[in-house]
Queue: 4 jobs
Job 1
Amino acid sequence: MSDTEDDQFHHTTVKITILGEPFTGKSSLCQRYLSNSPRAPGGTTHGAEVLAGQCLGLRPPVPLHLCDVAGNSLSTGMLRNYLYASDVVLFVYDLSNLQSFDKLNVWIEKVKEIFDEEPKKPLMALFGNKSDLEHQRAVRLSCVKQLASKYLLENFKGSARTGEMVNYAFTDLIARVLGLSVPSSHVTVPIKLETELELTKDAAQPDGVPTSPLIMNRKTLRKIQRKASSSILIEKYTDNVRFCIICNYLGKIIPALQSRCTRFRFAPLQHSQIVPRLRDIVEKENVKISEDGIQALLELSGGDMRKVLNTLQSTWLSARNVTEDTVYTCVGHPLRADIDSILTRLMNEDDFGVCFKFIQDLKILKGLALGDILTEIHTKIQRVKFPPDVLISLLIKMADSEARLASGCSERIELAALIAAFHLARQQIDITAIANS
Ligand SMILES: Nc1nc2c(ncn2[C@@H]2O[C@H](COP(=O)(O)OP(=O)(O)OP(=O)(O)O)[C@@H](O)[C@H]2O)c(=O)[nH]1
Ligand SMILES: [Mg+2]
């Protein structure tokens, strides 16, 4: 944007007047928008309060005046003064209170009458507040649409309590007044879903071929899931919209939705699939990485490319050199050398106290968790040639130890139990050897 354009917008203050019945949440909306916090319990508004602020969703920020008019001002002669020079008039109703919506007809007619002689008409919009009480909805969606189309009003629904849609609605209205486009970061699907889907339905091809895919992420889906009718919504638009839900945990999607979907599971990536991409990124980003660093990333990722890149990034930021040591140190995972020395002590150290002190000191020095040590030892132990019954009892004891750790048992006690388990295993091996000889 040029400097001249910049200046032009710097000097334009947008005035938004907020009207509606008492208790619909007008003051809460202003508070939510200007300070992104819920309103502390406070009394009703008297007359009108003008609040100054800025719309930070647009660049450069737009100066604002929010005129929060008391719900009982409809019949007072002051309404004309409050509305003076308004660029936007936002009519707020409580979607759990039908009367607050019905009364809007009177409010709108009154505003139209006031602006009848004015050359400049404000942009008018509806805001259905308290969407967090959607389950107590008393105002039918079709009635809202009817009112919006009757008076050509913009239509929003949200909640001053949760902040849903508040920022978007204000930014959108201000952008319209100034003839700007809303930044894409402010465009969220859920609230406009109905409208968007209807548009796509209109645009459906005559042969019924689906025209529009709708890919939802976790956040969008969560919002839809809150609505009791989410599965009905999918069924309703299935003719012309293909819904694609992407998630990590299937269990987090309600059964009603799951039963309407075909499930595709993607296996973890093979090392051969990860390495070329990783090398490409490393080369383009000029990251210094060693071969054992790559191996360490692969080991820790468990086939998850996102984990590979996150670990790569944090290691690079903390050490500026990606090697096996820096990777393991960065994520707080035990080094291979540490595990080897721990295992050597467990297998050979006869003095219980010395062995305990060695592992405990190493844990403190390197900040290792016993759970991680157990996991690593568990993989290594299976490669040691123990007699089968010794190995079985050792594995069972290690599994018990891990379960106790997960349920919050003391690490010191569990470390002692681990050393004891190895002592017993070694005694069993000695007894077996004597018996065989
Ligand atoms: N559940 C819920 N309650 C809300 C929401 N917004 C406001 N409220 C509550 O509604 C009540 C009225 O809020 P106000 O912001 O004072 O309402 P108002 O429209 O300014 O009322 P007047 O100033 O009397 O015209 C308060 O108890 C708020 O906590 C919302 O989004 N959800
Ligand atoms: Mg108020």
Note: The longest strand covers residues 48-55.
Job 2
Amino acid sequence: MNKELDLTRIVTAALQRERENRHERQGWYASDLGRCLRGVYLERLVGPPAYDERRLRLFAVGNLFHQWLLERVQETGERVLTEERVEAPAYHFSGRADLLLLGEEETRLYEIKTMHSRGFWHRQKSGELVLPQHRLQVNAYLWLLRERFPNLQGYLCYVSKDDLAVLTVPVPYREEDVAEVQRQLTVLNTAWAQQVPPPPAEAVVFDAASGRWAVNWQASYCPFHARCTGDPDWLAKAEREASARNRKGGESRGR
Ligand code: SF4
């Protein structure tokens, strides 16, 4: 009898192995910016959470896509640097800038974010192009690379994974974003030195763009709910709380 090829099992085992072989993190990463700082702290303390298989596959597809795009750019023969290491040792901070396009008069920094086409087209329609956490990440790179690359311009490229549509948005250097990056890193470093986690993120926040209360994205994507809140029903409760505040209407807005 022929053996069956169980691709699902092969993929899952490969992803688990990749996960287990990851290096222990030493500090803070660019992708930590804008997240719940308590969650970032816990991740450094106890290691990456045990994501479910579907989440691991999603990460893997995003990485593959990302790599594929960088290779296509390298093939063009343009002068580029890819995955350039960026660091601020005083803040125990590091990251990798996806792509630097070296020109005569300026250098362009592109940070690539892949996403599902539904979110991509929704973003185009709503006009809410740049997510705050992505803006902070690009500004962190601009802050740390400006000396090396004078006249450095930042961009975010959102790429839809289903149909390869691309949206490129300029991200100007802003002092207030750099100050926010430094503030978050200072909170994390202080917490680490004292071994006391930063305060929890708000469960429900007011979204000025939609004019409605919603579950805080920082919290809804957090893998530490059980450990942090001790309440496995946390998300459902937060959703009920957001609905209740929306039913109440404007009186509680902005509070
Ligand atoms: S459960 Fe909430 S407060 Fe705790 S780490 Fe996650 S997002 Fe932050």
Note: The pocket of iron/sulfur cluster is lined by residues 36, 38-39, 42, 200-201, 218-219, 222, 224-225, 228-229 (CB under 6 Å).
Job 3
Amino acid sequence: MNISGVRELDVVVIGAGQAGLSAAHHLRRVGLEPDVGFVVLDHAPRPGGAWQFRWPSLTYGKVHGMHALPGMELTGADPDRPSSEVIGAYFAAYEEHFDLRVHRPVEVSAVREGSGGRLLVETSEGTYAPRAVINATGTWDRPFWPRYPGQETFRGRQLHTADYPGPEEFAGQRVIVVGGGASGTQHLMEIAEHAADTFWVTRSEPVFREGPFTEEWGRAAVAMVEERVRRGLPPRSVVSVTGLPMTDAVRRARERGVLDRLPMFDRITPDGVAWDDGRVVEAEVILWATGFRPAVDHLAPLKLREPGGGIRAEDTRAVRDGRVHLVGYGPSASTIGANRAGRAAVRSVMRLLRETGGGTGAETGTETGGGRPGREAGAAVAAPVSGG
Ligand SMILES: Cc1cc2nc3c(=O)[nH]c(=O)nc-3n(C[C@H](O)[C@H](O)[C@H](O)COP(=O)(O)OP(=O)(O)OC[C@H]3O[C@@H](n4cnc5c(N)ncnc54)[C@H](O)[C@@H]3O)c2cc1C
């Protein structure tokens, strides 16, 4: 700490979801010590990243393609348990096993230019002055609500996926779900079991994809999002370019008419929604399953945004400021992408530290064991794996 109470260290990781924990794991493996070489800050109350806030009916069995964090498998989880509990417990065990010492709840309000080539990270527990920042703040904190004429006149309830409580609350009601993504279809299929009626409204015709989700297909989808980020455009979600998986549940819902889609309405009325061609739908609820945007407002003082609205990044490194790395952003906004981005960001940060004289005490560049000395991973969830 210097005399002004600002804590100097090498790296601040903002966010302890999949991406932040992966980065923290790799920082530890290259020899940086938590609270000395790096610190992980998260404003959520508990371990689990955004998963801790997901609705109880999103059970672990319904989560597709959740990749384990590097170095510790998630095994033996009950598929009927809420994913918020399963993944919360897994992340907690992970943080404990690798001794990552996440500081929470700590709000990061701004990252700005410091002195001597350092950044200043302003937080609810004081100011840090790192040489590099790994930003892993996800999207959950920035739900996207589109605006439509008349929205404020609606007498019913409007809510977003981020506040979705599960389907039971909608018993006997007429519910409009807006949005053609995975969340929208999941909400509809659940709510249709309880509601008096449901309506699905999407901007474009939803595309359902038959057949298995191959690695090749996944790579192509990631490449499309990557290209947008490279051009400085706001990233689209990886899921938005993969199409909707055609599962047995989706097939059944389509047969029952639950996934019959209406085009986007033109306005919202006090009692529902209306189209210019005279059609109206009356409803008590509008559920906006319209996605999320990157939660990067705290980076605004660094002026990283391009005219296109996005932050241009090469791999994970922000083009306008090579001290800032974005993980879980754009092409790495999936559990597997977040894992890889964490590792790539640490490699890049270690190069930067070597150039700027940081990384004191760290074996810069080579990964060492990781894990708390003398500690075994928790039996239910942990089995060390190689790589990551
Ligand atoms: C409903 C839903 C289901 C999904 N299912 C899947 C799936 O099955 N498979 C898959 O691969 N992906 C899935 N995803 C995508 C998934 O969110 C990502 O794969 C991954 O979990 C995101 O990890 P992350 O670390 O980037 O973000 P998060 O898990 O959102 O973590 C970000 C962390 O940053 C913290 N934070 C944010 N802002 C600040 C701040 N200013 N100061 C301090 N802390 C801050 C938050 O508290 C949070 O803990 C799903 C997404 C949604 C919305």
Note: The pocket of flavin-adenine dinucleotide is lined by residues 14-20, 41-44, 49-50, 54, 63-66, 107-108, 136-138, 140-141, 183, 295, 298, 328, 333-335, 338 (CB under 6 Å).
Job 4
Amino acid sequence: MLGIIAIASGVLLPLGSLASPFVTPVGPMDLFKRLSSGCSTSGSASCHNSTVQSDLCCFESPGGLLLQTQFWDTDPSTGPSDSWTIHGLWPDNCDGTYEENCDSSRDYTDIAGLLEDQGASDTLSYMKQYWVDINGENEQFWEHEWSTHGTCYSTLQTSCLPSGSAKGAEAVAFFETVVKLFKTLPTYTWLANEDITPSSSKTYTLSTLTSALKSASGYTPALSCSSSTLNSISWYFNIKGSLIDGTFVPIDAPESGSCPSNGIKYPPKSGSSGGGGTSTTTSGGSSPTSGSLPSKAHLTALTSSGSSTGGLLSAGTWSTQTLATYTLAGSASSFTMSTSKGKCAVSGGELTCGSDIDSASSFSASQPEFQQVSSGGNLVLAYGGSTAWTADASPSGATQETVYTGSSHSKDFTLVITSA
Ligand SMILES: *[C@@H]1O[C@H](CO)[C@@H](O)[C@H](O)[C@H]1NC(C)=O
């Protein structure tokens, strides 16, 4: 059905690779988050093996062609007005055929409870904003995505999990991986950066949309329309290693989506001002991005009690020592950060800046993924739409604390951006 799919340029997107080895002490809840496949990510990418692979816990097969699908829902509108939302991550066979509903014995219910119980509340709160059902039935939607597609991953079979893993741990890993991957694919921002914003009057050609996304991401996605209205996108990947902690290899879409070549409508979500205006505050409490972005900044930590305690050093850690200067590039709604140590990225949930980001995480680190948001009279740092950052403890003296996105660790804080 499809031709041979070439890896376009070998750019890799490692997920979680910076999260190990783990040098920070971990609490009981964190142990769940450290699910590790033990698989190498240096072998063949899925669909690119030249010999039969026997360990299907570490080589995704037969569903080695992955689609990260996103929605642009406007009737009714779902999710933030300035973001596409997650549909799922589907394992197609290498020829584009696919399997579904592969193991009804693992059709888990109460996905929200599984995530909460296994230390993935940060992923859950992100899902409540960005992985939303058009009828508000989020739990059913998540259950459907897991049972229909998640159960088909060979690398997520329960026999692949470390012994003693909690029931449903592979589903938790699936949702965490999908969220992490989605955060590296900011379709709305990539289009907006090319002045392609939702409008009730404008129409776009398919080539305008596709080339904007290709120039931002390096790869061609497939765009789908309902009549002539844009409503979904598929970003394609192969994977090296396991879905739990493997390396995603982006590829061009092997086939185009259903949009016509011109006259494509990209309507605003209701409540949005339709391009150029301010976006509405979402129920998750995230504020519109705002303010001009300083090119050099310090990032100071403001704890939930309102006190200011130190800030970020050049490696991205939290400390009360002299703060590092961060170089910010891009716009308030989408920028990259670097320090004297190297580029900064969130990988495996941790904020890290270092020279290894350039090679190890070039795909995600080269893409703008941070936002400047106005909150409580300050301009604060957001990642993937969330202004929440956490650590295991407040630093004192010479200690440095690892900084995590979301609010999964015990000490919550925000990072205030001040011009340096
Ligand atoms: C790749 O590995 C899979 C799984 O073992 C196998 O089914 C397939 O035939 C292999 N492809 C090649 C070209 O050897």
Note: The longest helix spans residues 169-183.
